[in-house]
Amino acid sequence: MRSRFMTRAFLKGLFKRKNLLRAAGGLAVAWLLAWYAVPWLFPLPEGLLHPEERGALVLDRDGARIATLPGPDYYHTEPVRLQEVPDMLLKATLAAEDKRFFSHGGADFLALARAVAANAAGGEVVSGASTITQQLAKNANPPVPRSLPAKAREFFQARRMEMSMSKEAILESYFNRLDYGNLRRGPAAAARFYFGREMSRLSLAQCALLAGLPQGPSFLNPLRHPERALQRRNLVLRRMREEGWATDGMVDRALLEPLFSVGAEEDRRPLAPHVTAALMHAGRTGEVRTTLDASLQRGALEIVKRELERLKGHHVTQAAVVVAENATGNILCLVGSADRSHPAGGLLDGTTLRRSPGSALKPFVYAQAFVLGAYPGTVLPDVPTTYRSAHGLEAPQNYNRAYMGPISIRQALACSQNIPAMRALGTFGGAARLLKLLNNLGIRGIQGDASHYGLGLAIGNAEVSLRELTGAYACLARGGAFLPLKLEQGPSVPERPVLPPEACFLTADILADREARLAAFSDAEVMNLPFRYACKTGTSSDFRDNWCIGFTREITVGVWVGNFDASPMKQVGGMAGAAPIFAGVMKLAHRNLPPSFSRAVPGMVRIRIDARTGRREGALRVPQAHAREEWTSLETMPQEATAGDYDAAGRAFLDSRYTEWFTSPSCTARDAYCLLPGTWSGETPRILVPADGSRLVLDPEMPGMGRRLKLRSNLPAGAVWSSPTLTIVQYGDEATVLLEPGAHVITVRHPELNLEQRASVTVREL
After folding, report:
1. CATH number of 331-590
2. Which helix H or strand E contains 586, and what residues bound it?
3. pLDDT tens digit sequence for 487-542
4. Strand partners, 58
5. Arithmetic mean of pLDDT, 245-261
6. For the chain, is the Cβ count within 10 Å smaller at the N or the C terminus?
């Protein structure tokens, strides 16, 4: 009986052990199937079949990287090979995410147990246990909500990758899909953005910061939450010390390092943002080789920021720069704004905005005059003048409110006088011809016909862009051959002749004449570069824009300074605003390029002239005090000076156009000039301001409502003004009328000459 009982107990125990063994075996088989077989039922993550691609790579003229454009998802991605990842960044990433990566098969059960315990103790999910391989499975698949099926898929795909790929291949794919925040994917793009450097130059602290960011790119964003990022970085550093991947000394020094070094913010800014933005909007892909010189671009940006800092008390917020290589039309540097993040329109490209060029169009006025028979010694009247335009009568003034009387084209252009420029335009070709010339020079954005602008075109009443104007000046430097400016390397375009070389040389020679400028600008105002260059400044009305554009034979530099909202600067002209930037950029552009300057065109000659009349010396010797050497060609050779040009004392005769200037207190050259005898015999007296039939408006926005109007006529000194209905204040030869609404008659009379003239005017309030 007992034996039977023992046998039954033995069999029962054996059966239980068999069940246990069977269960254990079943579990083992299930585990083996789950670990080794089931993963093959899951495809590799979809993203692994389509490796991450770099956005368009923008290179400078020498192949140096300027930027990587974002892809369709707006992420900046720069795929790397694992060998390119610094050892410390690799170790920091393992310390932060998966320290047993090289010893597990896709799932870390020790980390899983730790996470379960931590989450149970905290009553919530406070720690995860996903391995690098599991994270790759998640990142390489389309986004899905978190769920058990999703986690199961990640697990099996992780196992599939571990059995199909090497650890190195998994790590490489993982790094190239890591989101480091701020739309940067991959460690190379992150290193450039946060630190402005290559991965190979990262410090231990910088490696630790990058390694910690993928856990929460937005939450740990070091630009918005530096304290969180610092805490995470230091945690990664301490883990590296615990694992023996960094020595105590290395970690201690890294813990003391700030998140970002001094100047990191500047390094983070893109080098040519307006160029890359244009390429991005054009949908460019692949490799884009630009014509930019990265070193020059970087230096020009620094110069712009330095000079705007100097001008910050003058309400100046923006500047733009274009540097062109004359031989090719290649744009070597393009600064669209001082700071693309600036709230005052930093996103705008100042090189394409249309603004008033002020005096910067005058070189083309005189180049046109040279084509039509003038030469640099041609004398023009710089005297008070009234012009009729489509908008009524205009009485322009020179920028310094002074008049120089008889003035040569050389001095008029060098000193940037307005009246002679308008007279030259009216005499040589007119506004319609100048508009056509500007169009042929690439300035094609001027709206309206010539009658809309009139002679005011000479002094900048049409709007142009800096890029177009720089291209036009480059044509002067090129001797009259036009080439369009370009930003991408490619086939060259044939040159197109626009101006004769003689006209370009004469214009350039004047713009390079430092001595001629000294008549209007102080020595301190004239830029003193260590080589010869041509240059012209321009300032629009109310100091809204100022320009400085110039060239050597090799390089043309264009600079604009102002505010994108067109608000006026505080007394900042071209010499104070744009010129210092021009000088700095021009010197920088020639740092490794010896400068040269245009030479006289064959057939041009130097002649000795009388600067007062513009006539050349012949049999009659010109007094040394008034003699000048000047360039001309056989076609524009001036007449010889004759005795009939002077009075008995050797003074040069002036015609009636100069009478008002010559008889005014501002004339200090009466020992050099005299009026022609009988200047007033038979000449009809005229009231110049206000002209007969004028309709005048009292504007409440003008000082004193614009009631005070200076009276002008063509009569010499001694004229007397009167009106039966208006008050006229006269002191010497200066007369001012105080306007009132109504119809009035103003009379001017010269008692000695017995000449008189009247003008009827109508005045109304606005």
Report:
1. 3.40.710.10
2. helix 578-589
3. 999 888 899 999 999 999 999 999 999 888 876 665 555 578 999 999 999 998 88
4. 67, 288
5. 94
6. N
Per-residue model confidence (pLDDT) at position 10:
59
> Cβ of 150: how many Cβ atoms within 10 Å?
15
Report residue 126's pLDDT band, with 50, 70 and 90 as the boundaries. Answer: very low
Cβ atoms of 308 and 338 within 8 Å: the answer is yes
What is the arithmetic mean of pLDDT over 664-688? Answer: 78
**Nearest CA to 235 among 123, 331, 95, 371?**
95
Partner residues linked to 76 by β-bridges:
184
| Predicted TM-score of the model (pTM) | 0.79
Q: How far separated are the first and last CA of the chain, in Å rounded?
A: 134
User: What is the average pLDDT across 37-61?
Assistant: 82
A 10 A CB-CB count for 627 gives: 13
Same fold, 46-268 and 646-765: no
Residues 6+ apart with CB under 8 A from 532: 512, 552, 595, 597
The DSSP call for residue 49 is G
Say if residues 615 and 639 touch (Cβ distance below 8 Å): yes
103 vs 114: CA distance, rounded Å: 17
- H-only helix segments in 339-408: 362-371
User: Crossing angle for the helix pair 418-427 and 362-371, nearest 10 degrees?
Assistant: 40
Res 402: pLDDT: 81
Write down the domain spans for the chain.
Answer: 9-40, 46-268, 331-590, 603-644, 646-765
Letter string b/e over residues 585-620, b meaning 16 or more CB atoms within 10 A of that residue's CB: bbbbbbeeeebebbeebeebeebebbbbbbbbeeee
CATH superfamily of 646-765: Immunoglobulins (2.60.40.10)
Structure tokens, 152: 């199961």
Residue 196 structure tokens? 């402005």
Torsion of CA 694, 697, 702, 704, to 10 degrees: 90
Q: Please tell me the number of Cα atoms within 13 Å of 525 on its side-chain side.
A: 19
- DSSP state letter for 33: I
pLDDT at residue 109 tops 90: no
Fold of 46-268: Penicillin binding protein transpeptidase fold (1.10.3810)
Cα distances from 463 to residues 352, 360, 438, 723, 724, in angstroms, run 11, 11, 12, 41, 44
Rounded Cα distance between 102 and 298, Å, is 43
Long-range contacts of 598-602 (CB under 8 A, 24+ apart): 598/477, 598/479, 598/504, 598/505, 598/508, 598/509, 598/553, 599/505, 600/505, 600/631, 601/479, 601/501, 601/502, 601/505, 601/633
